[in-house]
Amino acid sequence: MSVSMIGIEKRIGDFHLQLDLEIQPGELLCLLGPSGCGKSTSLRLISGLLTPDAGTIMLGNKDITVTPAHERNVAMVFQNHALFPHMDVKDNIAYGLRVRKTGKQEIRERVDHLLALVHMAGYGKRKIDTLSGGEQQRVALARALAVEPDLLLFDEPLSALDAALRGMLRKEIKRIQRALGLTAVYVTHDQGEALSLGDTIAVMRDGCIEQRGTPEEVYRSPKNLFVASFIGRSNTVTGTVRSVRDSSVLAETPFGDMAGVPMKGIPVRPGSTVTLFFRPEHVECVRDGSSQGLLKGTCLETEFQGESYRVQLGAGNQSIRIDAFPEYLNAPGKDMSFRVPENKVLIFP
């Protein structure tokens, strides 16, 4: 089932949401952004928990803009599970079906099917308070799926779980969503979650979508400095443009002269101040610091990461973070040389 949000506006105090969004059938869209950017507000508009001040919300070819939440065939999985503690697993999953007066035999068959789908066969008689956090979230997902929704919504469902469990449940959510061909909207502030889960990502800021695209597009080709800095680990350095070539810019920075690719459609002139953006994984450490064209910085601190060290390098009043293998590591206070490929550096005005 497709979703269309056309000309949506919603004011809550000083906050103003302005949204146009299309979600294709079977797509898993991740709404990603910092706290207060409008992610959960968007989800509540789709679910019917909020009504927009302006605009139209379509579910398939049906206008649901003012349709009450209980009349939309939309299910939501919350962060806090919202399970009934006095019911066992089976009854929690069956709750929505009983409200809809589904037949007993069909309820039994569907509950058994869903328990198998979320890898909890045999847990039907278990009490909720005997389950782990991950198991409770699986039950919450099964309950949402029981009513066969046209659209499945997730409001940061894994944020209260530990890292290992989050990673496992991300895979399960994606597996189940793909297996059922469900359209889904997943709200998160976790970049790794969005990159691993989403077919597409919409990055939000201040009530608007800054960029939408596949995880690879948003990560590798950010449209502005906010998106670039918000997705993944990043470095930014301020520099002064020395020269402008056909497809690249050379800028003077405290680390040395650095070349990069200017953002399309944005004029950059010699003498202007720019921000150079690049990711730590694109930095190549170099042992011999005497070669021409290398960048140099002073090691400020190191952080052991297992197979590598995360190193903070400083020059002037600026600093960057890079990943260095032990054989390239210098103690704090020593100089390090490095280079960054020109095509991995983005230039922002």
Q: Which secondary structure elements does this structure contain, and how are they paired or packed?
A:
Layout: E1 3-12, E2 15-23, E3 28-32, H1 39-47, E4 54-59, E5 62-63, E6 74-77, H2 89-99, H3 104-117, H4 133-146, E7 151-155, H5 163-180, E8 183-188, H6 191-197, E9 200-205, E10 208-213, H7 215-220, H8 225-230, E11 235-244, E12 249-253, E13 256-262, E14 273-278, E15 284-286, E16 295-304, E17 309-315, E18 318-324, E19 335-339, E20 346-348
Parallel strand pairs: 3-8, 3-9, 6-7, 7-8, 13-20
Antiparallel strand pairs: 1-2, 1-4, 4-5, 9-10, 11-12, 11-14, 12-13, 14-20, 15-19, 16-17, 16-19, 17-18
Helix pairs in contact: 2-3, 2-4, 3-4
The H/E string reads EEEHEEEHHHEHEHEEHHEEEEEEEEEE
Name of the top-level CATH class of the largest domain: Alpha Beta
Strand content: 25-35%
CATH homologous superfamily descriptor of the largest domain: P-loop containing nucleotide triphosphate hydrolases
Tell me the CATH architecture of the largest domain: 3-Layer(aba) Sandwich
Query: What is the number of helices?
Result: 8
Domain unit count: 2
Radius of gyration: 25 Å
- CA-based shape: elongated
Mean pLDDT score: 91
What name does the CATH topology of the largest domain carry?
A: Rossmann fold
Helical residue percent? Answer: 10-25%
Task: Give the biggest sheet.
Answer: 6 strands, mixed
Q: Strand order of the main beta sheet, please?
A: 6-7-8-3-9-10
CA-to-CA gap between the ends? 41 Å
* Strand segment tally: 20
